[in-house]
Amino acid sequence: MPSTFADRTHRLELQMLELINADRAAPSSLPETSGRAHPLQWDARLAAVARAHSEEMAQRAYFSHEGWDGSLPSSRVSKAGIPWRSTGENIAKTSDVLEAESHFMNEPKFQHNHRANILSKNYTHVGIGIAKGSDGFLYITQEFAELR
Question: Is the separation of the CB atoms in 48 and 56 below 8 Å?
Fold first, then answer.
């Protein structure tokens, strides 16, 4: 039975989760994490929020943390009924997940950026959503949270 695009997309989302957790555990990340960035747990609710944002960006051909309706990442997470203490979002528009994660992790260390979201010891959960645009690019959203 051939796999559907949704199946392939979910495999890419899980691949990105593995990349994130490998980055959090990497010895090169120790100066930033002090060894306190434990593996992130997958959260299906965060993934639904991330997927919806990626699909919206892909369908409307735009790229922004701000939703088409003006919503911000934290408000989208709250609107989904997810209780959180802290939340963050990374977005990428790229040809594959390895390239996206590489771009995120090649940002400056010890700065408030995508890399810091990936390595934050405060975040405990993540949801990742990927959609393919008519332009051929993957629109990737990573929703991070410390849940209550």
Answer: no
Instruction: Note the pLDDT of residue 68.
Output: 96
Do residues 68 and 56 touch, judged by C-beta distance below 8 A? yes
- CA–CA distance, 108 with 127 (Å, rounded to integer): 24
Whether 49 and 91 have beta carbons less than 8 Å apart is answered as: no
The rounded distance, in Å, linking the Cα atoms of 55 and 7 is 15
**Could you identify the residue written with the tokens 């990349």?**
19
Interaxial angle between packed helices 97-105 and 5-25, expressed in degrees from 0 to 180 and rounded to the nearest 10: 30
Question: What is d(CA 34, CA 31) in angstroms, rounded to the nearest whole number?
Answer: 6
86 — phi, psi (to 5°)? -145, 150
Judged on CB neighbours under 10 Å (0-12, 13-18, 19+), 85 is exposed
Give the tens place of pLDDT for each residue, 62-121. 999 999 999 999 999 999 999 999 999 999 999 999 999 999 999 999 999 999 999 999
Tell me which residue has tokens 């934290």.
74
User: 3: pLDDT confidence band, cut at 50, 70 and 90?
Assistant: low
How do 84-94 and 41-42 pair as beta strands? unpaired
